[in-house]
Specification:
six-stranded mixed beta sheet; alpha+beta; globular; 33% strand; 289 residues
């Protein structure tokens, strides 16, 4: 069995509440998570003046001494002819070897007005200690339309269909794990890491009988208390807005032979999201290891 510390963080291109973009500060916040695999959202690569035209993924890799890969969900023409395209999207940082990576754009719902920006999923294959391999998917779903998020989840499921070993999905889902648009993840073998660790907002299991099943035999007061406790658990894992989080829209999902021992939400830092970190244990070598 190998143990990995993993995390997801929407960094808002390093923009803090003080109105400054400070990647050194963002790097310190990432380092505090003590994770060896970190998925990032809202990362700029030469995007423009707001982030000093910097390649933020590469810079964070340098500051943290990590391997890095980047995928642009949005690419715009350069501000000037001699400059590279302006790119914005997803990144992955890791202490381990990145074997390969690719960015796939996610579909929009054809029956709705086009989304305000394209969305994608960054897929990286990582090799860690003991030749253990792990597929990691980093994403950022649409922030406005449930129908678009539903279509994007289907895109992720199709991409992941060919993955045979342990896999990790992380990102800013812009939806609670219990929402209908994310239901297809659970239906296709993905498990909410927080619920897997016993700290999620789903029904808890005691001796093989879920609290939902027991609900038919409980008093109304006990049922109300259980609902209140579920809401409190969900708030403890809320990530947005960072100052007073009330929504659990950043999450980690696992598939295959992976166990999760804990999930925690980081302290409020400079972004408008709080990071989420987990400790996962792969019980067998990944395929291809």
């Amino acid at each position: 069995m190998s143990t990995w510390r993993v995390a997801t963080y929407n960094i808002r291109h390093g923009l803090g509440d003080d109105g400054r973009v400070d990647l050194a500060r963002t790097a310190r916040e990432i380092a505090a998570l003590d994770a060896e695999v970190i998925g990032l959202q809202e990362v700029d690569q030469g995007f423009g003046p707001r982030s000093g035209h910097e390649d933020q993924a590469a810079r964070l890799g340098e500051l943290l001494g990590m391997q890095v890969c980047f995928g642009a969900a949005l690419e715009l023409p350069p501000a000037r002819e001699s400059e590279p395209p302006r790119r914005y999207g997803l990144a992955l940082l890791t202490r381990h070897e990145i074997l390969r990576h690719s960015l796939a754009l996610l579909p929009a719902h054809p029956g709705c007005a086009p989304p305000t920006e394209p969305r994608g999923v960054l897929h990286a294959r990582i090799r860690g200690p003991g030749e253990q391999e792990l597929d990691v998917l980093v994403t950022h779903l649409d922030n406005a339309g449930r129908a678009h998020r539903t279509a994007q989840v289907q895109g992720i499921i199709r991409l992941a269909a060919d993955l045979t070993g342990p896999a990790l999905l992380m990102g800013d889902m812009n939806a609670d794990p219990s929402t209908p648009e994310l239901a297809a993840l659970a239906a296709t073998g993905w498990r909410d890491a927080a619920q897997e660790a016993g700290s999620g907002d789903g029904a808890s299991t005691v001796r093989g009988v879920t609290s939902t099943q027991r609900g038919n035999r409980r008093s109304p007061i006990r049922a109300q208390l259980d609902v209140a406790m579920t809401q409190l658990r969900s708030l403890r894992l809320a990530t947005h807005p960072a100052r007073f989080p009330v929504r659990r829209i950043d999450s980690l999902w696992v598939r295959g032979e992976i166990e999760v021992s804990n999930v925690e939400v980081g302290a409020r830092r400079s972004s408008d999201h709080r990071p989420v970190a987990a400790t996962v244990h792969m019980t067998r070598r990944g395929a291809g290891a």
